[in-house]
Amino acid sequence: MDDRQENTLSMYQVVGPVLDANATVWSGVPAFVSARTAFGAEVTIILGLAQAQQQPTTGVTADKKDFRLAMADAAMVVVGPLCAFAAVTGNGDLAAQTAFTRSDFAFGRDNDAATNGDVVHTHGTANAAALANYGVTAAMLTALRSAIDAYRASISLPRQVITTTSAATTQLDAAFARAEAVLTKQLDKLMELYRLTHPTFYQEYQSAREIIGPTGGSPPAAPPPATSGP
């Protein structure tokens, strides 16, 4: 949220309790009850969107890096024996296809790294029986598959967070507009019912409606309630 929205939300969070503290005054007016419910619903939506908007990408980016390094470690445990096996058996094609370094998994393009992991797992699985003599176990191949899958699932996470926060920002504008419409077009108008009959409530509401902050404004000061006679 920007400063204007922060200040406006602070005002909303004062208006709500003032209304609720005086519920016995307006609870018999269905239109007022409906407006109060609608206003409360919009404030709840705003609070939820504000939380979504503030979701950081730092954590998911760090997780993605950790998954990638874990995949690199799991892949190299299989790459070494595969290369040795290819050399011993004179399998030049296998040697060429599995000539990876740790950097091929730890760095470079995201999806290329995952694809490299797939290549290693495919060849490791196809030659599992022979690789047993080189120290490669079924557990190693399973761990590699899990590491690849976990890394691939993490690739889109930072982008998903950015998309979520962007959508929340757009939706916040709409939620504020709806809340403001309920206030200015319904609650502010209905409060005129209580200018004379419940002047304390009326004045508390007008004070609550002031937006405090350098970028905020406030509604015009309400005239004092009329008095009858000298």
Description:
By secondary structure, this protein is an all-alpha fold. The protein has two domains: 3-54 and 158-208; 66-155. Helices cover 75% and strands 0% of the residues. It contains eleven helices and no strands. Helix 1 (3-21) runs antiparallel to helix 11 (199-208), helix 4 (58-89) runs parallel beside helix 7 and helix 7 (110-126) packs antiparallel against helix 9. The longest helix has 34 residues, at 157-190. The two termini are 50 Å apart. Residues 215-230 have low confidence and may be disordered.
Whole-number count of domains: 2
User: Describe the biggest sheet?
Assistant: none
Radius of gyration, CA atoms, in whole angstroms: 32 Å
Number of helices: 11
Structural class from helices and strands? Answer: mainly alpha
Q: Alpha-carbon distance between the termini?
A: 50 Å
Which overall shape is indicated by the principal axes computed on the Cα atoms?
A: rod-shaped
List the helices and strands and how they pair.
Blueprint: H1 3-21, H2 23-26, H3 30-53, H4 58-89, H5 92-97, H6 102-106, H7 110-126, H8 128-131, H9 138-154, H10 157-190, H11 199-208
Helix pairs in contact: 1-3, 1-11, 3-10, 4-7, 4-9, 7-9
Please supply descriptive tags for the structure shown above:
single chain, about 230 residues, mainly alpha, 2 domains, 11 helices
Q: How would you summarize this macromolecular structure in one to three sentences?
A:
With about 230 residues, the protein is an all-alpha fold. It is built from eleven helices and no strands. The model is unreliable at about 215-230 (pLDDT under 50).
